[in-house]
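STRUCTURE REQUEST FORM
Protein name: UDP-N-acetylmuramoyl-L-alanyl-D-glutamate--2,6-diaminopimelate ligase
Source organism: Cloacibacterium normanense
Requested output: structure tokens
Priority: standard
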Amino acid sequence: MILSELLHKIPVLETFGNLSSEVSEIVFDSRKVTEGSLYVAIKGTVSDGHSYISSAIEKGAKTIVCEVLPENLVEVINYIQVKNSSKTLGKLAANFYGNPSENLKLIGITGTNGKTTASTLLFDIFKNLGYQSALISTVEYRVGDEIIHSTHTTPDVIRLNQMLAKAVESGCEYAFMEVSSHGIHQDRIEGLHFAVAGFTNLTHDHLDYHKTFEEYLKTKKRFFDELPETAVAITNADDKNGDVMLQNTKAKKKDYALKTLADYHGKILEVDFNGMLLNFNGKEFWTTLTGKFNVYNLLLAFAIAVELGFNEEEVLQAISTLKRVKGRFETIKSDGGIFFIVDYAHTPDALENVLDSINEIRTKNERLITVFGCGGDRDHAKRPEMGKIATRKSTLAIITTDNPRTENPQEIIKEIEAGVEPQNFSKYTSIPDRREAIKMAIKFAEPKDIVLVAGKGHETYQEINGVRHHFDDKETIIELYKLMSK
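Status: completed
Returned output:
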């Protein structure tokens, strides 16, 4: 693309060089520069991209976008000085790929829990309604029927625009994406045009990154603050932070709830491990999904589909044929009558929601055994909280490893144990090896008992000291149960 076209509607402070030059690609990592690249120097949290401008030029970059111009400008190189390189990168990527988010309806879901489920449900609902869509989630990226390996909840803005351009090219009319707090804070959604933004909830998470809950809240809110007037913002009225999200948005405001009056109101009529009978806006339907937290996810998906112009009945018809999302309250019933549940719950709120959902369904004649851990090199404050919740709401809690990363698993377990209340000391044990912990749960379980294995859900690896080892909770349960049943 010609540089002057690429800079269309982008505010610049100063330019040096030839604006009619060709740009072969946009990069913000100097190691990925090739001949004819435009290199964007970004001031990151770990390193400053301005330090790598010379390296980028040596590798063939012909255009440099930066906030601070180098002392010595190279004559044959184009320099574009901007106020904020990170925000400019998003606009450059959007222009380079033909502003694909304006050529389909882009729907973003943010919040602590439920982003993956709500986005995936929407993708599946629209497939059932007969529409080609794209999905950008923690579990996978999809363009129509093509599945692309997922690397981040919210990919970098260049990859995002690449995928959205591919979606437009493939005839997709809708794209559903998770919008993480990291993605908002790091300007990974800059330059994207959202038709609808949905908010699930806000609870304790990622405080290792945002430092305070207030900062985390402000980051999520920024997504809604920056929406255009043409967008629709849909929030959870049952969450105390729901209204905060809508305070300064220019978008049309809508809400959904189970407990309070809202534009989209839901009721649980019946619930068991096989599914739920629900009522949304006065209309009854059955779903194979279960758990109160899933009612919120379904209600948000329903609200979004209706706001996009679909009839309530046809949306509910599409919802009633949905299957469960991988690793989200995924159930396995063994031949011996033990009920296993695999769930991604890795925050205090998510773990509490899953345990509450199980306790609402079970008759209390069965025991509830919970296997869980906490990730290493992440938010320490949530560990004791999760220890308290798991031991309070389970018959037995087995504390184990999640992804210890570079931390000592025993130290993580100690921090979880610190939250266990004295009256629940007899209700837990700790086994650092996750496979052995699952084995212990199976050994301890009797027919009709429920075993929840929480924290990793869809993940197929365990990260220990920077190395990812194959580990799949569901696969491990099935394999160990077969071995132990012989």
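Reviewer notes: The chain has a mean pLDDT of 94. Residues 292-307 form the longest helix (16 residues).
Form closed.
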